[in-house]
């Protein structure tokens, strides 16, 4: 299910949201990329990202609004996983050990999915 590249911390952030990270319980959408599947929640995605709000939010006419699984393509898988971890209030790089290429990919993902706070953090 979840990739092994990033492990969420056991504490920190808002426990009510943090505890939902990649758990099938209450999940209403699965995000698929890089051969992995992540159990997500439209509420979490839409409250943070105008992109997901447009795609999956109430009144959306896009197919994703009713989809149970959405595949994201053409993005760096590690950056996408970090993006999702960030939405669930996890530190995606607690050791600050990622390369500049990772942060560039994260900046690109944050820009694409309209999450300016993460884009600012990436650089």
- Average pLDDT works out at 85
- The CATH topology corresponds to Potassium Channel Kv1.1, Chain A
The coarse overall form would be globular
Structural class: alpha+beta
Q: Numbering strands along the chain, what is their spatial order in the largest sheet?
A: 2-1-3
Radius of gyration over all CA atoms, rounded: 14 Å
The number of domains: 1
- Give the number of DSSP strands: 3
CATH class: Alpha Beta
Q: Per DSSP, what share of the residues sits in E-state strands of 2 or more residues?
A: 5-15%
Catalogue the unreliable spans. 1-14
CATH superfamily: Potassium Channel Kv1.1, Chain A
- The total count of helices amounts to 6
Order of helices and strands: HEEHHEHHH
Largest sheet: 3 strands, mixed
The proportion of residues forming helix, as a percent range, comes to: 25-40%
Q: CA-to-CA gap between the ends?
A: 29 Å
CATH architecture: 2-Layer Sandwich
Please give a structural write-up.
This protein has 123 residues and is α+β, with helices and mostly antiparallel strands. The chain is built from six helices and three strands. The protein has helices at residues 15-18, 42-48, 50-56, 77-87, 100-112, 116-122; strands at 29-33, 36-40, 69-71. The protein has a three-stranded mixed sheet. The chain is globular and about 40 Å long. 28% of the residues are buried.
